[in-house]
């Protein structure tokens, strides 16, 4: 028997997230994303399928060049219109019991003081089932939406994220002692001021006094996801992340990525098993190969190549025209996501990939097709390549997940590749067997760092209590 994989549903609060064009299928319901009932029904389906988390991607602007046209984006429904996932999670938290609720938030879109408060509130509402996908944004338009002239340079965005996390850890882990909340009606004291601390953070971008306004939530720090694949992205993940979402085109690429990243985790003073890897996979399942082929043909009929190319942002000019498909990627300036180009290069070692390769790769990447037993074999191969979990990418809502539950899950369970019941407790407890960050994580260093118990720390860490 194999070890069970983890399973997330990869979602976005929009009509066209990854598989562009599929919203036009007559049975697709992703265009109903404004209706909270679509999501509540889906959440229940996913809990029936014992999914570990609903993982919401998010963006805060348009794909494409700054000052570029966005005709293709809106024709495709490509992440515009789109809604805020954090607000949706509040509704999903009360409609579910077990499933984790992961959402993406970039470091530009929210001040860390406010973001940390939002997360703590959601973690209270969900009783400890919140995860955060830490992203630095790849969109020039998003930078302009938040008052910047341009996107900060690629590696410097990760430096920014380092400080952002530092502020958030101080608030989540250091500001409140565990026994600060009293709610003592007779003693007329709601909380103990000597155990609630200002953090007095002063850094390159932020000055935050504190204290954190919410009392400690079940996980304090949410489960930390990250999704960058560049060298700087991997070193960032090795320091902070508890799970990473990766997208190499095949198990061989995943093996290189996971070996490399696990070695960095150990260099960062953590244990290999402290970081879980999730691969994005789209399934095409059939009882026969003829059924699989027919389904693939139907998906191809709705596929929008233009949508995939627009999503990649590469090769699109401000007037909406495009560079020729045989343009090599090394000839296109790229301050956006770089990991996906590195993964493509690793898969075409004999030559530099072109825009045509990029489009083809985006359409075919992570598609696992076949009879249920063949799908199980392929997932075993991904697992052997170092993958701990799968982010199940949908073609259609809710069909992709209904079909997964009915036609794929039973075989995976019989093979030991999927669990048969939820573990109790918080999301971190379900995945790692603990509610809180482990002691070797940088966030844990702020426990007891602000207040009377801080006397053993170097003077620059010691700040007055409240
Ligand atoms: C599988 C995957 C999913 C991602 N999801 C999002 C997302 O939802 N929102 C976002 O702004 N960026 C997203 N990104 C972008 C990354 O967070 C990161 O900013 C980008 O990949 C640049 O980092 P890199 O150059 O280290 O790869 C995603 C990246 C990958 C590989």
TrEMBL record:
Residues 20-388 form the Luciferase-like domain. The keyword Aminoacyl-tRNA synthetase does not apply. Keywords: Flavoprotein, FMN, Monooxygenase, Oxidoreductase. The keyword Chloroplast does not apply. FMN binds at residues 58, 104, 154, 158, 230. It comes from the Bacteria. One of its GO terms (molecular function) is monooxygenase activity. NCBIfam families: FMN_nitrolo. Belongs to the NtaA/SnaA/DszA monooxygenase family. PANTHER family: ALKANESULFONATE MONOOXYGENASE-RELATED, C2H2 FINGER DOMAIN TRANSCRIPTION FACTOR (EUROFUNG)-RELATED. This is Monooxygenase.
